[in-house]
Amino acid sequence: MGRIHHALFDYLEAHPGDGEVVFSPADITWGSKKDLAQPDVFVVAADEVRDSNTSWDSIRTLLLAVEVISPSSTRYDRVTKRRLYQRRGVATYWVVDPDAGLVEVWHPDDERPEIVTDTLRWRVAVEAEELVIELGDLFRELPRSQ
C-alpha cells in the first residue's frame, strides 16, 4: 500500500489545492453514522481539509478511495463499500486485488468495473496530467494470501 500512498502524495504535491491524500485510520461518515467507511487510502477535496482541526464528520467529497482486499474483506470491499461509495458520489474507487493481480476501477454510475491489469491511471482534476502507476511494481510490494 505504501507505493500507492507515496505515488498519490507525490502526485498531489504537484497539484496543490486540488486534493489531499489521507492514509487510514480515518472514519468517513458523510455526516451520517450509518454510512461509516474507512478506506485504506483516499484523496479528499483540498477545500474540505482546511487545517488540523478539520473533523472527519465534515468530509463530504472523496475524489478517490482505495481498498486493498484480503480474503476476509473481499465481499465487503467489492459489494458493500462499493455501493456506499457509488451512492455517496466518490469519484473513483479502486479495489486492489493482489491475489488476482488486478485493480477494479469504479465510478458512481458504473454497473461494472473497468478491470486494470497493467497500468493504473487517474487525474485529480480534468486539466491535471495523469498519475500513472505500473501494477507490476505495485503487486511486487503487496502481500498475497496463501
Strand content: 25-35%
Taking Cα atoms only, what radius of gyration do you get, to the nearest Å?
15 Å
CATH architecture: Alpha-Beta Complex
CATH class: Alpha Beta
Number of domains: 1
* CA-based shape: globular
Report the total helices: 3
Structure description:
The protein is of the alpha+beta class. The chain has a single domain (2-141), classed as tt1808, chain A, CATH 3.90.1570.10. It is 23% helix and 27% strand. It contains 3 helices and 8 strands; from the N terminus they run αβββαβββββα. It has helices at 2-13, 74-87, 135-141; strands at 19-23, 41-45, 62-68, 92-97, 102-106, 114-116, 119-122, 131-134. Strands 1-2-3-4-5-6 form a 6-stranded mixed sheet, sandwiched between helices. Helix 2 links the parallel strand 3 and strand 4. The longest helix has 14 residues, at 74-87. The chain is globular. The mean pLDDT is 87.
List keywords for this structure.
tt1808, chain A, 23% helix, 146 residues, alpha+beta, globular, 6-stranded mixed beta sheet, 3 helices, 8 strands
Question: What's this model, at a glance?
Answer:
The chain is an alpha+beta fold.
Task: Give the SSE map.
Layout: H1 2-13, E1 19-23, E2 41-45, E3 62-68, H2 74-87, E4 92-97, E5 102-106, E6 114-116, E7 119-122, E8 131-134, H3 135-141
Parallel strand pairs: 3-4
Antiparallel strand pairs: 1-2, 2-3, 4-5, 5-6, 7-8
